[in-house]
Each structure stands twice: as structure tokens, then as C-alpha cells.
Amino acid sequence: MPFSHHSHSGQFCPGHARNTLEEMVEAAVAQRMEVFALTEHMPRHDEDRYPEEREMGLVYEKSQVSHKTYFQEANRLREKFKLKIQIVIGFESEWIRPGSLDLINISLQNNDVDFFVGSVHHVHTKPIDFDQAGYDAAKEVAGGSDHQLFGDYFDAQFAMLQAIKPPVVGHFDLIRLKSGDPERSFREWQGVWGRIVRNLQFIASYGGLLEINFASLRKGMTEPYPKDEIAKTFEIMGGKFCLSDDSHGVEQVALNYHECIPYLKRNHISRVHFLESLCENLAEPIDSRFPSTKLRSLTIGELKTLPFWHSRNMPCSPSGLDNN
């Protein structure tokens, strides 16, 4: 697919990713992508650092400086590659505790952003996708079962959605990654499914985009985020979808996008949306907070005609990377 609304580089996401930001953009150009969003993580509180970040001595103050440098570099690259690709600049937010809202607002107020991705990577302040130990710790706090943890995850997600109404909702059902049965149907747990429907209804009500995130496939799962049953439900609600590779290195740019058209077809999704920044067309703004960022869409038929699908370089097999 020629659009991605979620990516990371080793330059600004040390430990989790690799390659420079410019190398990531170059890879997107080589894949004949048309829109590539840059969304490095926002700074987090010091108590929420991952082990490798602690080893590097990465504290909040240093993260703030790096975050500012990231936006400067992103704008340089947008200008450098403007004739080859549309670069949309944002960040991935973190919802960990009530104080996360203050940090999100700092990122929004102190930087010129086109949009942001709203994600939940922690439940009960424990990271649920970093390693099994973190997931198990969160499950213990939740009461000891996947069922209870899933419910708490979607409650935390709902709190995030209400507080910040993210233009793009990241990896909606990330919670299944480290669970005992990541392919389990959510419908089996009525309380969990009710929370999912509630969250989807809220996203649809404010016009948020639900990303179809193909990172789950490189991690061994059989369906992208969100699972088919969630995608079908959101489509029936009139919800809008966008596409993301959630790349953490050049080998992951557009990885597994060959699964895109089959996913759209089996879930009866007739249209996908994408963002453009600083454009003069008559498309609607994605959000009143970001008036220069426009929302456009294509039908599946239009999608299939784009040059991307004919690129010999389109990756279609899992890479050796194992990053989040």
C-alpha cells in the first residue's frame, strides 16, 4: 500500500528500532509509497523507561531535546523529498497514567505537528507488548487472567480516546500480542466485546481513523491489527480506516502489505483513507486542531491501480527484525 501512518527510526527510537530517519524515508521512496508518516514516540516519565533506555541514561530532559531535534529533522526531510513523497509529521502518544495527558499536551503545544497516533502500550503502568514479563505483571495486577486484563486494556484505551481523541488510533487490539491465545475471538468474552464496541463507536463518533497495522504479521500472528471481527464491526458503523506498517527499520517499510487487499475484501471495507499535509486541495481537514492536514480516500478499485503494487521491491515476507 502506498500509505503508512505509523513509523519509527533507530535515530529517535533507540533500542526499539534501527536506521536513521532519512534512511526510513529513502526506503519509502524506493517502495514507491505516496504518503509516509513520521511518528516517533513522545517523551515518557522516567519511571516508564524500558531497560535499554535506562542503560543509555535516557531521562525525560534528554528525551525532550531529542523530540525537538526529531521535528527539525522531519521538516528537513519533508523539504528534501517533497518532489518524491508526501511526508506527514506527527508522533505516537503514550497513555500510561493520568499524568500522561500533560506530556501529550506538551508535545502538541511545543511542536508543529500534522497529526498524532493515540496508542496504549501499558496497563496498570506495566508494558504489555515489550516482553512476556511485562504482560504477565499487568495480568497479575488485573486479577490473574487474560480476560480481566483485556477488559482493563480496553477501559484504559477508552479513557485515552475520551481525553485526546487521537486522529489515528494505533494498533487497536495490541493487547493480544503476548496473551496465551492471540487468535482468540473477542466475542467469546461478552464483557470484553462490549468494551470493544463502545470504543469503536466513540472513534466513529468523532471521525478518528482506525489504522490497519501490519506489524502483527511479522510477529507471528495471522491477522493485522485489528482482527477481522473488529474491522467488520467498525466498517458497519461507518468507521474510517487508514494503513500503517509500524516500521522500526528499513526492512519493515511496507512489509506484508501484500496482505492488504485480501484483508480489505474479506472485511467488506470499500474505502481507505490517508492524510496529506500542507496541501491546497478541497479535501476536509482531519481535525480542527490540524487545519492544514487533509483527509482523502480511495476505493479498493482505485487502490489496486497505484504503481506501488507493481514495484519489484515490495516486501512480502517476514523480516529478521523482532522489534515492537
TrEMBL record:
EC number: 3.1.3.15
Residue span, PHP domain: 5-213
GO cellular component, one term: cytoplasm
GO molecular function: histidinol-phosphatase activity
Listed SUPFAM superfamilies: PHP domain-like
Residue stretches in coiled coil: none
Keyword Amino-acid biosynthesis (UniProt): yes
GO biological process: L-histidine biosynthetic process
Reaction catalyzed: L-histidinol phosphate + H2O = L-histidinol + phosphate
UniProt-listed PANTHER family: HISTIDINOL PHOSPHATASE-RELATED, HISTIDINOL-PHOSPHATASE
Family indicated by similarity: Belongs to the PHP hydrolase family. HisK subfamily.
NCBIfam families according to UniProt: hisJ_fam
Protein's name in the database: Histidinol-phosphatase
Source organism of this protein record: Endocarpon pusillum (strain Z07020 / HMAS-L-300199) (Lichen-forming fungus)
